[in-house]
Amino acid sequence: MTRIALTGAAGNVGRELVAAVEDGDFDDHEVDAFTHSEHEDIESELLEVTDPDDVHEKLAGYDVVFHLAGASEPDTEWDLALETNVEGTKHVLDAAVEHDVDRVVFASSNHAVGTYNAADDDPEHMTLDHAEPVCGDAPPSPDSFYGVSKVACEGLTSFYANRHDLEIVNLRIGWYMTPDDLRDVVAEAEPERERFARATWLSPHDCRDVFLKSATADLPYSPVTVNAISQNSERYFTLTETMRTLGYEPLDDAAETLAE
């Protein structure tokens, strides 16, 4: 049985993965949740990713790490992004090497490549003109200090993959929302933000699938860097690489969901 450590379990994506475990989606795996603080609705162990000793102690004995912990808002200031995202990710990678962890699945972000097809300086505004396709391993083009921190983390994961033969999957995650949240955002959004939501949506089902496949797929190379969005008909982030390398099987489309 594969042992998986889930950092950042109290975030939106982390909570979806906790729910997936509770629903039996990870029945062939033992998943332990880690959070920065205590939460009444999540059974977890505390983990401070900015403390290398704590990370080293807590991540011993795992086969795979889903690393989601860190600042997650596009408007995150640089000092916080550096400490929690960049330095925290280095601590996780160091622990993975020291404990012979097989694979780290890193929660990168669409904001690492966020200036492609951007309408303006708002990281959640998409052009209303023709949108160019953005492949899974497109060169970084961050839209914020948060995006810069994710680019730096992808640099770290690449270094550890090449230097230490660590298996790495970088998921450039889109905008995770429940269907109801998607409808609420679109109902109140200006056109540029609505198009961004329709293009980058990651549904709960597809979120579960891409993480499960990231833990179990036989990787053809490392690091693997791919997009993690749903099969939205209005997407510009390509999914060919995600499907081919991970066996990802997305089911949901923002346009179809909004039409229901």
Automatic annotation (TrEMBL):
InterPro entries: Epimerase_deHydtase (IPR001509), NAD(P)-bd_dom_sf (IPR036291). CDD domains: SDR_e. One of its GO terms (molecular function) is oxidoreductase activity. Residues 4-174 form the NAD-dependent epimerase/dehydratase domain. Keywords: NAD, Oxidoreductase. Signal peptide: none annotated. Belongs to the NAD(P)-dependent epimerase/dehydratase family. This is NAD-dependent epimerase/dehydratase family protein. It comes from Halomarina salina.
